Amino acid sequence: MIINTTHHNSEHKQIIADLIGSSFSLVQKLKLGGIGSKRMIIGDVSPNMKSMMNKVSDINYANIELRPKGILVMINQGLKNFTWIIPYYQLVIYKTNGSSIHAQGRFVHFKNSKTFKENKKFFDKLLDEKVKYDMQYAMPHSL
Questions:
Q1: Long-range pairs for 76-79 at CB < 8 Å and ≥24 separation?
Q2: Which of 141, 115, 125 has the alpha carbon at shortest distance from 93?
Q3: By the 8 A CB rule, do 104 and 1 touch?
Q4: How confident is the model at residue 141 (pLDDT cuts 50, 70, 90)?
């Protein structure tokens, strides 16, 4: 689900909380060593997300925030902000000349630039959180 978060809307906060949980508490944020990535340069997006990209040759940026049951991908388009809500069970990450996040029939590919390399620890943390989430719902081994 993608929502326009340019202006504050309490309904959006509730939708996000319902889908992927409320933001981590201050103590949890400190334990995790932060829950947000630095901004990364978007290299490409799926055709159904092109409308959220800058029309001119400006660089498109996004950053990611961890939540208990998923992530928020926040995309900036000029003065507008869009938030893509992705539950962990829908999240797929590919490491191909940068990294790309796939879910819900959409994708965002981040360029392998200096800003992406600064986020290596964040992506490791993201994968750890996804694995923890997946382990809660792992299927028991057959007997």
A1: 76/39, 77/52, 77/53, 78/54, 79/6
A2: 125
A3: yes
A4: low
